[in-house]
């Protein structure tokens, strides 16, 4: 009941934000327009199919887009929590809703905004690219169509929960510490993007697909470029979803303590203690 | 039946005992002064009443409509000392949101919010973003957020800080009205004169323990001695040798001193020698300020 209201509030606040409108519509539309104009100036040769993209291009593109969308929304959650803590409005909020609802409402509300963002991006990109690349949606396999939304949702939840928890235990945006590393973990596989695409079946890359923080990016790229056995997809998704579940329970307790702790950043030992024995604090 | 009952409540953070075995209650339609020096355990106690923190020991109960219960967040309001709102949201939207979180239906929330904005002279700011408001205006918005759902209990933590005198009076007036309507108000403040003006009873916490609790006039009675403030002309020499007075401070044509406990103010004033001309005189119970300082300093002394 109250969760709904927090979700609606966070969603509205996110999509009414100027930055969101610019990032979601204006910027991609502008880039799309430039590409279209460029295509026309080139004489329309592009749509004749002289360029021959690899068949998995659209899937790789979609994977990157989904990962980036989840990641950016996670970053927005991070700043949202920090801002809420910094402005102390959190104190007022907690006299009305539970810490769990507050955190969940923010994550779900901003996630829905992120979903809109990704959808708009994908649509603009698709129509712009189709002007001069012979791509069709039928190139997407059933495995991709089923697994991508799940990787997006659970990937986003994982990133957002990690970020919300990290932010709730930080003094302000300038204080680093262990919390600063959190962002890097999920982004790490992107540093090896070329290798992921060229050698998707190397043993250590397959193993990375089961490690929940790496799973969304690694698996979506692998599924795009190679045929991944279904059991690997199911196992990776199960581990990811299970981690999200456990992490959410741990994070709610940390958030409850951390978000009211002003003036200093918590260290890992404290965070661990808050998550395991919240009654002591 | 008290609306709020705090029984033997304790709370520790790691090795620090923030609150130890504190008890008090608040009646319907009373303003209870909730006092204490910085770091005494006030905020921790308030957070426990608000259901933001759980006590380690003891119990906090609310009795509303004859039913005794644990905290119902929809029936309480809070103006935290740490002020803060969503900067990028509009005043009207923010207040409706807070009202909805307290269980008011949207349409009623809107009506209430508009009435309150009118009352606080903020109507023309309704569609503006919070960040455009002055600090005092933001404080009004927060005050509205604390009371607009007509809670049974509201905790006001330093409601007057940072307000100009006109707005301090406005807040005072509204707080009195809410009390008349039967709202129970916990008023936490370091401004002792405001507490004296508004509160029926006070509760003083120090080092996590209750050190003073009860009817304000009784507490003043118990702290006995009268303070005399005098502006005079002529010869005030007798003041420095009169055995009935102590703590004499003189500067220019002014003198302030305390009468010993057994001295009746009436008898004292009648016996002032004729060569001292009284321009102004006030005989009062010690101000709460002095009781506060005395109690807290004394408490410090005992524990050291």
Kindly describe this structure.
The complex is a heterodimer of chains A (281) and B (304). Chain A is mostly helical. Chain A has one domain. Chain A is 73% helix and 0% strand. In chain A, helix 1 (2-16) crosses helix 5 (99-130), helix 6 packs antiparallel against helix 10 and helix 11 packs across helix 12 (268-276). Chain A starts with a helix and ends in a 5-residue tail after the last helix. Residues 44-49 of chain A have low confidence and may be disordered. In chain B, helix 2 packs across helix 3. Chain B has 2 domains: 4-221, P-loop containing nucleotide triphosphate hydrolases (Rossmann fold), CATH 3.40.50; 225-284. In chain B, strand 4 (57-64) and strand 5 (67-69) form a beta hairpin. Helix content of chain B is 32%, strand content 31%. The model of chain B is unreliable at 300-304 (pLDDT under 50). The two termini of chain B are 39 Å apart. In chain B, the strands form 3 sheets. A 6-stranded mixed sheet of chain B has the order 6-7-8-3-9-10. Chain B contains 9 helices and 14 strands. Chain B has helices at 42-49, 91-101, 106-119, 135-147, 165-180, 192-198, 216-222, 265-270, 288-303, and strands spanning 4-13, 16-26, 31-35, 57-64, 67-69, 76-79, 153-157, 184-188, 201-206, 209-215, 227-234, 245-251, 254-259, 276-284. The chains are: A mainly alpha (281), B alpha/beta (304).
């Amino acid at each position: 009941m109250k969760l709904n209201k927090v979700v609606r509030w966070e969603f509205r606040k996110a999509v009414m934000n100027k930055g969101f409108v610019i990032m979601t519509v204006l910027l991609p539309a502008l880039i799309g327009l430039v590409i279209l104009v460029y295509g026309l100036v080139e004489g329309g040769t592009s749509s004749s199919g002289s360029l021959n993209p690899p068949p998995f291009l659209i899937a790789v593109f979609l994977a990157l887009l989904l990962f980036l969308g989840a990641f950016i929304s996670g970053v927005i959650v991070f700043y949202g929590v920090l801002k809420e803590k910094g402005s102390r409005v959190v104190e007022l909020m907690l006299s009305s809703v539970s810490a769990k609802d507050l955190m969940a409402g923010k994550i779900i509300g901003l996630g829905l905004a992120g979903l809109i963002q990704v959808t708009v991006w994908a649509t603009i990109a698709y129509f712009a690219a189709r002007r001069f690349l012979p791509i069709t949606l039928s190139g997407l396999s059933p495995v991709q169509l089923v697994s991508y939304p799940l990787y997006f949702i659970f990937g986003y939840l994982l990133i957002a929960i990690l970020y919300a928890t990290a932010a709730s235990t930080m003094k302000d945006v300038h204080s680093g510490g262990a919390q600063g590393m959190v962002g890097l973990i999920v982004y790490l596989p992107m540093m090896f993007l070329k290798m992921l695409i060229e050698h998707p079946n190397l043993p250590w890359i397959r193993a990375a697909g089961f490690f929940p923080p790496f799973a969304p990016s690694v698996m979506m790229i692998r599924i795009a470029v190679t045929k991944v056995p279904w059991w690997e997809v199911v196992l990776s998704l199960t581990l990811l979803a299970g981690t999200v579940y456990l992490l959410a329970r741990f994070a709610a307790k940390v958030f409850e303590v951390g978000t009211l702790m002003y003036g200093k950043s918590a260290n890992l030992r404290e965070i661990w203690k808050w998550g395991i024995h919240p009654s002591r604090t | 039946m008290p609306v709020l009952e705090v029984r033997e409540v304790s709370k520790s953070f790691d090795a620090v005992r923030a609150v130890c075995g504190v008890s008090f209650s608040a009646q319907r339609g009373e303003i209870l002064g909730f006092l204490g020096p910085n770091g005494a355990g006030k905020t921790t106690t308030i957070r426990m009443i608000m259901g933001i923190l759980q006590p380690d020991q003891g119990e906090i109960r609310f009795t509303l409509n004859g039913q005794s219960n644990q905290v119902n967040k929809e029936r309480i309001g809070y103006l935290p000392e740490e002020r803060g709102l969503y900067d990028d949201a509009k005043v009207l939207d923010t207040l409706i949101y807070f009202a909805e979180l307290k269980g008011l239906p949207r349409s009623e929330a809107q009506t209430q919010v508009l009435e309150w904005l009118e009352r606080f002279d903020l109507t023309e700011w309704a569609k503006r973003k919070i960040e455009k408001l002055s600090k005092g205006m933001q404080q009004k918005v927060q005050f509205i957020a604390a009371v607009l759902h007509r809670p049974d209990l509201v905790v006001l933590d330093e409601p007057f800080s940072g307000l100009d005198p006109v707005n301090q009076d406005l807040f005072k007036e509204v707080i009195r009205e809410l009390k008349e309507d039967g709202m129970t108000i916990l008023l936490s403040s370091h401004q002792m004169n405001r507490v004296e003006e508004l509160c029926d009873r006070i509760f003083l916490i120090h080092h996590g323990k209750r050190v003073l609790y009860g009817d304000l006039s009784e507490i003043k009675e118990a702290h006995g001695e009268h303070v005399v403030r005098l502006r005079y002309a002529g010869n005030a020499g007798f003041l420095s040798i009169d055995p009935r007075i102590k703590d004499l401070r003189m500067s220019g044509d002014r003198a302030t001193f305390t009468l010993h406990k057994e001295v009746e103010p009436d008898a004292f004033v009648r016996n002032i020698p004729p060569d001292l001309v009284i321009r102004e005189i006030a005989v009062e119970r010690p101000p709460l300020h002095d009781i506060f300082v005395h109690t807290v300093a004394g408490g410090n002394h005992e524990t050291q």
